[in-house]
From TrEMBL:
MF terms (GO), sorted A to Z: metal ion binding; oxidoreductase activity
Pfam families: 2OG-FeII_Oxy (PF03171), DIOX_N (PF14226)
Superkingdom as given in the UniProt entry: Bacteria
Gene3D superfamilies named in the record: B-lactam Antibiotic, Isopenicillin N Synthase, Chain (2.60.120.330)
Domain Fe2OG dioxygenase: 180-281
Keyword Oxidoreductase: yes
UniProt-recorded name of the protein: Oxidoreductase, 2OG-Fe(II) oxygenase family
Entries under InterPro entries matching the protein: DIOX_N, IPNS-like_FE2OG_OXY, IPNS-like_sf, Oxoglu/Fe-dep_dioxygenase_dom
Family per similarity comment: Belongs to the iron/ascorbate-dependent oxidoreductase family.
Record keywords, A-Z: Iron, Metal-binding, Oxidoreductase
Length: 338
C-alpha cells in the first residue's frame, strides 16, 4: 500500500481491492467515482490492491535485467524478425518508431501465450502465437507468465470499475469485448543516457491503442503525462501500477474518457525498466459507442480529443485498428503482415 492519495503531479492513487469482490458494493461505488474523476481528468491513475504481489514484480524485474544484460548475439536469437506474424521477440535500441522517430529503448514483445494448435494460430492470425524465450535466462518465462496472469486479472477487475463508473453493469465489457481480451505485454529497457546527451525521447508522445494499460515501472522514473494542466511526471510509487485509458475507451465514450498523450525520457542516469500490459478488446470485436442508456453523451465531448477524431472515425475490428497502428511503429514487420 502506498498510503498516498495522489502523486506530486496530482495523479490519483486508487485502492482497487474491492473490485475483486462483487459483494463490497459501497466500496466499489466509491472506487468507481474515483475512477470516473481520473478518467475525466488526465485519463491516468495509479492503483494499489491490484493483486500483483511484490514478489511477482521483483522476479519479473530481476529476470528482465538478466535478459537485457545478455550479449547482442544472444538477444538476436529471439529477434522479432523470427517471431513471424505473432509479432513477438526482441527489438534493439532504435528499432521502434513511436512517433515516427526511433525510440531510445530496447524491448521484448510478448503477449498471450498461444500454442500452434490454437485455431487462431493455425489460421495464421497476426499478433497471435507463441512468445519467444531466451534460452540463457529460462526463468524469464515463468516470471513473465505469472506476472501477466496476475496483471490480466487486475485488468478484468478494473474494467468492472470502469463499467460501474460509466453507469453500466459491472460485467458490460466482459460481455461485449473482453471475454477473450487481446493482451500484449512489453518489457522495456531505457538505457542510461550520458548527462550531456540531448536526451532523446525513450518513447515519443503517443496514446495507447486499446482499452486500458497497466504499467509497472522500476524506481527510476521518466514517464510524463499530458494533463489539462500541462505535462506532469508519473513518478514511481512502490507497489502501484500506473493505469491509463486507451483509444478504444476514448472511442466508446466519445472522448468522455480520455486517451491521453504520454512520453518517456530517462534522465535518471540509470538504466530504467518498465513493463506495460495492454488490456484490449478481443481482436475480432467491433468497438461501438456505449449505449445511450449509460447516461454518457458519447457525442458531446468529441472535440476534446487530442488529435481530432481519428479513433472515432475508423470502421472495422479492433484487430484492424491495432494492425494499422503497429505497422507504423514497425514498418518492416508491417510490410510482412499487411
Ligand atoms: O515505459 C513507460 O513508462 C511507458 C511506455 C508506454 O507508454 C507504452 O509502451 O505505450
Ligand atoms: Fe504508452
Amino acid at each position: 500500500m502506498s498510503g498516498l492519495d495522489s502523486t506530486p503531479g496530482g495523479l490519483p492513487v486508487i485502492d482497487m481491492a474491492s473490485l475483486f469482490d462483487a459483494s463490497r458494493t459501497t466500496e466499489r461505488a466509491q472506487v468507481a467515482r474515483e475512477v470516473e474523476l481520473a478518467c475525466r481528468d488526465s485519463g491516468f491513475f495509479y492503483v494499489t490492491g491490484h493483486g500483483v504481489s511484490g514478489e511477482q514484480f521483483a522476479r519479473l524485474e530481476q529476470e528482465s535485467r538478466r535478459f537485457f544484460a545478455l550479449s547482442r548475439a544472444a538477444k538476436e536469437a529471439i529477434a522479432m524478425s523470427r517471431g513471424g506474424v505473432a509479432w513477438r521477440g526482441w527489438f534493439p535500441l532504435g528499432g521502434e518508431l513511436t512517433s515516427g522517430r526511433p525510440d531510445r529503448k530496447e524491448g521484448l514483445y510478448l503477449g498471450t501465450e498461444l500454442g500452434s494448435e490454437h485455431p487462431r494460430v493455425k489460421a495464421g492470425w497476426p499478433l497471435h502465437g507463441a512468445n519467444l524465450w531466451p534460452s540463457e535466462v529460462p526463468e524469464l518465462r515463468s516470471a513473465v507468465l505469472d506476472y501477466m496472469a496476475a496483471c490480466t486479472r487486475a485488468g478484468h477487475a478494473l474494467m468492472e470499475g470502469i463499467a460501474l463508473s460509466l453507469g453500466l453493469e459491472a460485467d458490460y465489457f466482459q460481455r461485449h469485448y473482453t471475454a477473450d481480451p487481446t493482451v500484449l505485454f512489453r518489457v522495456f529497457h531505457y538505457p542510461a543516457e550520458p548527462e550531456t546527451s540531448e536526451a532523446r525521447w525513450g518513447v515519443g508522445e503517443h496514446t495507447d491503442y486499446g482499452l486500458l494499460t497497466l504499467l509497472a515501472q522500476d524506481e527510476h522514473g521518466g514517464l510524463q503525462v499530458k494533463t489539462p494542466r500541462g505535462w506532469v511526471e508519473a513518478p514511481p510509487v512502490p507497489g502501484t501500477l500506473v493505469c491509463n485509458v486507451g483509444d478504444m475507451l476514448d472511442r466508446m465514450t466519445g472522448g468522455w474518457y480520455r486517451s491521453t498523450p504520454h512520453r518517456v525520457k530517462n534522465v535518471s542516469g540509470k538504466s530504467r525498466l518498465s513493463f506495460p500490459l495492454f488490456f484490449d478488446p478481443d481482436f475480432v470485436a467491433e468497438v461501438q459507442p456505449l449505449p445511450r442508456a449509460s447516461g454518457v453523451d458519447v457525442d458531446a465531448d468529441r472535440s476534446r480529443r487530442w488529435d481530432g477524431a481519428s479513433v472515432h472515425a475508423y470502421r472495422g475490428t479492433y484487430g484492424d485498428y491495432l494492425l494499422g497502428k503497429v505497422s507504423k511503429v514497425f514498418p518492416e514487420l508491417g510490410r510482412r503482415v499487411l
